[in-house]
Every structure is written in structure tokens, then in C-alpha cells.
């Protein structure tokens, strides 16, 4: 169900040129629809940048801690 909602959000985003602002604790739901990510811990900005870089080559230990246990979300085409 989550994958279907994400897929629909992305279709609507592409068609209408929308920007979404997600505040999430579940990073698995952030990676797919977001181009940029900002990680905040205890009110402080820990890391921000392009989503692919954050998820694949994060610079902060906090980001790696959040990403490591993250399950992969598969979105239908």
C-alpha cells in the first residue's frame, strides 16, 4: 500500500511540477520521492544534500545509523 501511494505521489508530482516537503522518521519512505534530504537530530541540522549522496555516502554517523537498518521500498513501475 505504501508503495502504491508513493508511486501515485510521484506521478502527480511529475505531471503538475509539484514540490513535496516530508517530515518523516521512516527514511525508507523518503528516499524514493525526494531529490534532497535534510537530517535533523535534537533540533540541529546534521546533514543535508542530494538524496542519493545522503543514502549512499552519508558523512554523519547519525545518518548512517538511521540508514543502516532501513528496508528497501520497492515501488511498482
Automatic annotation (TrEMBL):
Q: What is this protein called?
A: Peptide/nickel transport system ATP-binding protein
Q: Which domain of life is it from?
A: Bacteria
Q: Which InterPro entries match?
A: ABC_transp_ATP-bind, P-loop_NTPase
Q: Which family does it belong to?
A: Belongs to the ABC transporter superfamily.
Q: Is the keyword Transport in the record? A: yes
User: A GO molecular function for this record?
Assistant: ATP binding
What keyword terms does UniProt attach to this protein? ATP-binding, Nucleotide-binding, Transport
Has keyword ATP-binding? yes
Amino acid at each position: 500500500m505504501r508503495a502504491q501511494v508513493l508511486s501515485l505521489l510521484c506521478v502527480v508530482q511529475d505531471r503538475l511540477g509539484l514540490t513535496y516537503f516530508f517530515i518523516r522518521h521512516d527514511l525508507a519512505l523518503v528516499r524514493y520521492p525526494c531529490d534532497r534530504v535534510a537530517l535533523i537530530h535534537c533540533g540541529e541540522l546534521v546533514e543535508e544534500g542530494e538524496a542519493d549522496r545522503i543514502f549512499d555516502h552519508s558523512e554523519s554517523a547519525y545518518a548512517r545509523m538511521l540508514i543502516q537498518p532501513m528496508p528497501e521500498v520497492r515501488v511498482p513501475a
